[in-house]
Amino acid sequence: MHRRAAALAVPLTAIALAVSSCSSLPEDWRTPAFLRMNDDTLDSRLPQVTGDVGEEPEITFPDIEPPDEEISGVVSKGSGEDALVGADDLVIANVVQYQWTAPGEGEPVEGQSSYENGAPDLIRMDQMPEYITETLVSQPIGSRAVYVFPALSAEEMAQAEAMGQTAPEGASVLVIDMVDRFSKGAVVPGEQTDDGGGDLPTVTQDGHRQPEIEIPGADAPDELDVVPLIEGEGAEVEEGQQIIVQYTGIRWEPEENGDHEVFDSSWTQGGIPFDTTIGAGAVIKGWDEGIVGQRVGSRLMLVVPGDMAYGATSEEAMGAPAGTLVFVVDVLGAYDNPPPPEPEETEESEEGAGGDEVAEEPEESEE
Q: CA-to-CA distance for 332 and 297, rounded, in angstroms?
């Protein structure tokens, strides 16, 4: 579907902070501690991480200087052997970042814990560097991985500061807990209990394939119609959450050849699930109003009138499809977004809130 704004992907801030200082790690820094020859031995230099996956980890730093090479390993293997992470999956993960500052000493990085802010990270494996993914691929969901990135050099610290970033001290440590995964061609479970029909479009979908949408001979409805084709059993989608979906969209009005061609679909992009923020104006109004309140696991048919899509003249003005649109949307998942950062207080606002320069009250008139 054409979008009014670019998709609001969740920034992987914890990962970015650890690796953004240089475009690639030197080859001699890349030393995966989880060895590839059926050897589960972990590098003894890795911090010890305890606690259950799904809860804020507890970390103990070794009583040694932080290593000067990148090391990583899977410190806790999940039980989901039937759900192994693939190289092109969309992975839902909780990520926590720490700074290892001295032998036996370290601390969490403020604001860099998805457990703390209640919003997991969305990691597109095919967009991450190999030194992140090579430890995660083929591991079962529920696994916990730990990464150590060496301290920045003086040159790298200067580069980070020039870019307006706060250069961290010591080695950076990431803990990644893999919670769920969505692979290419993912669809909601269950069989369709409704296919629409009547004065509304009829939808058929064969397994993990793009749905077929048949438009009736009736006039398009004037108002938004939301038809659950499969009723999900998950939590209700809330305003402001990030959702993961498969979708297909066509116009109600036929093309010049009489066909109703697909104008946008995640299926034409290899069946890669699409993610966006819902209920916040990141997508068309018909999606915002039609998907919020529906349950995760639902397959929805949305019949969206033009005034809740792109308008009657959008094709000429912005290249978006005009008129009434029909979407079939599989709601695969919904997760909270992190809260917006709190505005920093300025010296002026601090003074006005009780500083030395608060204006004095006027003296009462003798009259």
A: 6
CATH assignment of the domain containing 287: 3.10.50.40
DSSP code, position 22:
S
Task: Report the alpha-carbon angle 210-214-218, nearest 5.
Answer: 150
- Secondary structure (H, E, C), 136-156: HCCCEECCEEEEEECCCCHHH
pLDDT digits (tens, 9 = 90+) for 215-271: 999 999 999 999 999 999 999 999 999 999 999 999 999 988 889 989 999 999 999
Do residue 166 and residue 210 come from a single domain?
no
Residues 253, 324 contacting (CB under 8 angstroms): yes
Q: Which residue range(s) make up the domain with 321?
A: 202-335
Residues 307-347 have pLDDT tens digits of: 999 986 666 557 789 899 999 999 999 999 988 766 655 55
Instruction: Give a yes or no: residue 346 inside a domain.
Output: no
Is residue 331 within 8 Å of residue 296, measured between CB atoms?
yes
Q: Report pLDDT digits (tens) over 136-185.
A: 999 999 999 999 999 887 787 788 778 877 777 889 999 999 999 999 99
- Please give the structure tokens belonging to residue 141: 């969901």
CA dihedral 145, 140, 19, 22 (to 10 degrees): 120
Q: Kindly state whether residues 46 and 168 are assigned to the same domain.
A: yes
The rounded distance, in Å, linking the Cα atoms of 195 and 260 is: 18
Contact status, residue 275 vs residue 90, Cβ threshold 8 Å: yes
Grouping H, G, I as helix, E, B as strand and the rest as coil, residue 316 is helix
Beta strands in the chain (DSSP E): 30-32, 48-50, 58-60, 70-76, 80-84, 90-102, 105-113, 121-124, 140-141, 144-149, 171-182, 202-204, 212-214, 225-230, 242-251, 262-265, 274-277, 299-304, 325-335
